[in-house]
Structures are given as structure tokens and as C-alpha cells.
Specification:
With 246 residues, this protein is mostly helical. It has 8 helices and no strands. The protein is globular. The protein binds fe (ii) ion.
């Protein structure tokens, strides 16, 4: 197992303040995630090494454009805000802490988009952020997302999002840690360090939702279905911005 993954597991995955069926369910899902998390760290290290060997600065722009497309207002408005809508008015008192964490994530993802724009501006790849509006590379991302179409499925379970938080936001944390272990560029490091604590918070939100709320088979099923979807072969790679190849 990659040491970066071992460290992440020991620090963040296994310690928990809860006990009971939520934790047990999460640990069963964790076993399913482990091989793909491990593969992700190896890939992110490999891609970062390839970027360094390229001998030019274009990889920084490639990463930043991909990050601009995969985070920022696109991500926030399409995904995060619709997560809030999965909690109906009469369920708000039960899930109000989840609503608050999701509201915070809207802000986080917009900030992440801005961090990528900053790399492009400070790196001299663009003069004004508006230029990115004309560049498809800064406006498209090839990753499938269970929640990209959430607005079309208003019946989605309020806890379903926990599966994506747990599986994908962990990959953001791992991809960032792996990339930071290789890339020495100041611009990239500043961007990744600025983003990293928030990705951790998003992962911890998934962990908390499962440990605290996924206590019955009825509440676990919609989360498990998200894991079933995300653990298919198309998923185990982060965005190019976080160390993936695309
Ligand atoms: Fe993000």
C-alpha cells in the first residue's frame, strides 16, 4: 500500500467518535474503496513525475484549466446547491447540520475554481479570467458524476451524497497529497495547499454523515448504491487538476 494512503487511513479514515451500525457500514464500504484509492495515489505520483519531466510549463496550465472546469461555480451550482434541495422542508430539522456543511461547500468549490484561475493569471497563461470563457478546456471535464444531474432527480435520498463525499473527496485529498510529494513548483503548491484542508472537510462530511446518520438498512441502501456506481472502472482517477490523466 502507498504510504500516502496508509497515512490518510490512520489519520482520518479509521479513528471515529461514533460507534454502531453507521461506522460498521462505512468500514465495509471502505474495504471496497481501498484498492482504488491505492491505485489513485500511484497514478497521481506517476502523472506528476511525467509533468515534471516534460521540461516546460504547459502542464501547469493543463492542470489549472481542468481544475477551473471541474470546480468553481460549475461544480457548485450544478452539484452542491442541488444537494441542499435533496432535503425537503420537513426534514430540515433532522438534517440541518448537513445543510450547513453543504452550504459551506458551495463557497469552497467556488474558491477552488478561483485558485485555478490564479495559477493561470500568475503563471502568465492568460491576462484576464474572462479569457477562460472562450476556452473549452476550461469549461469541460470528462469525469462522470453521480450528482451532476441531481436536479433531475429530486427524489434522491438526503444521505446519498455521503457516498460521493466519502469516495471522491478522499481522492481529492489523496491526489493533492500525492502531487505535493512530487511537484516543486510554487504556483501549483500554493494552489494545492490552499485547497487541501477544504477537500479534507468534504471527505469528513461524508464520513460524519455515514457514521452519524446511516444507521438502518433503509438509510444505508441509497449510499451503497452510490458506492456501487462510483466503484466502476471509470471512476478511480481524479480530475487532471488533482493528479489524474484527463
Ligand atoms: Fe474542490
Amino acid at each position: 500500500m502507498q504510504p500516502i494512503l496508509r497515512n490518510f487511513l490512520d489519520k482520518w479514515v479509521y479513528p471515529t467518535g461514533f460507534s454502531g451500525p453507521g461506522v460498521e457500514f462505512r468500514l465495509r464500504q471502505t474495504e471496497r474503496c481501498l484498492p482504488l484509492w491505492d491505485k489513485l495515489v500511484s497514478q497521481a505520483i506517476q502523472f506528476a513525475e511525467k509533468d515534471l519531466k516534460s521540461g516546460n510549463a504547459e502542464y501547469k496550465a493543463v492542470r489549472a484549466r481542468a481544475g477551473y472546469a471541474a470546480e468553481g461555480p460549475f461544480m457548485s451550482l450544478k452539484q452542491m446547491s442541488t444537494q441542499i434541495l435533496s432535503v425537503s422542508i420537513d426534514e430540515q430539522s433532522k438534517y440541518i447540520d448537513l445543510q450547513r456543511m453543504r452550504a459551506r461547500q458551495i463557497w469552497d468549490e467556488v474558491k477552488h475554481g478561483q485558485l485555478h484561475a490564479d495559477v493561470l493569471l500568475r503563471g502568465g497563461f492568460i491576462k484576464r479570467e474572462e479569457e477562460l470563457m472562450d476556452d473549452p478546456r476550461a469549461n469541460t471535464q470528462p469525469k462522470l458524476s453521480y450528482f451532476g444531474m441531481t436536479a433531475m432527480f429530486p427524489h434522491i435520498h438526503p444521505l446519498a451524497r455521503a457516498g460521493q463525499h466519502y469516495y471522491n473527496e478522499s481522492m481529492a485529498c489523496l491526489g493533492i497529497a500525492a502531487t505535493l510529494s512530487v511537484i516543486d513548483d510554487d504556483l501549483i503548491r500554493h494552489q494545492l495547499h490552499s485547497q487541501s484542508a477544504e477537500e479534507m472537510m468534504h471527505f469528513m462530511e461524508g464520513k460524519y454523515q455515514i457514521d452519524a446518520y446511516a444507521l438502518t438498512p433503509e438509510d444505508q441502501k441509497p449510499i451503497e448504491e452510490v458506492f456501487d456506481f462510483l466503484l466502476r472502472p471509470w471512476a478511480p482517477e481524479p480530475s487532471r487538476a488533482l493528479g489524474g490523466s484527463q
